[in-house]
Amino acid sequence: MSPSNLPDNHPRNLRIGDLAQFSVLPEIPELSERAMEVTDIWTLDLQGETRTLFQLRDDRNRLYTLEVTADWGDRALAVGRELSRGEVGQLLPLDKLAEMFGEAVGVRMERVSEPDAFKGWTAPSYVQSVDAWKGYWLDGDYRHKRLPTYEEGLLEVDCYALRDDTGLHGFDAEVFANSETRIRALVFLPDNAITPLRSGQGSGAA
Length: 206
Hints:
mainly beta; 206 residues; DUF4178 domain-containing protein; 2 helices; 8-stranded antiparallel barrel
């Protein structure tokens, strides 16, 4: 279903300046009952599949991502927490990540530790869910406009995904042509875990 055919208050229809109001999430205290502003929108063009990522910012200036992976369901929303290299090393074995980035397939890895700061964000083990996607990263919202062509200077990117057995946790990684690497811890939430508030509707982050 396209964004235009969904209710206006569906998370897929978020815009820059809107607020994403999280419901009560006792298993993830960091997100529970918080309101976060949509500060940017990015687009991934992956071999014909187009994905939209929203950047969210809370009142502590922490940055998160939101991707709507399905219109409805228990795992419709993928919320990501950006990780520094040091944080990645606290959570995942770096040698296994290097193996995955080296074009191995089906890599399995165990969580290194579960720091209190990441309560609810991780699972004991993960497996590489698919081979790397090759595509392009675009700054901006292309839900209602034509994607640029390769000749227009797109940024090439390889995308990797790790998922746990329950489908509730994961990690996404992007390795760019300039060697920059971004890694996010993911939690998958039901579609009703976020209520979008249009600009001016909310009073700010909780």
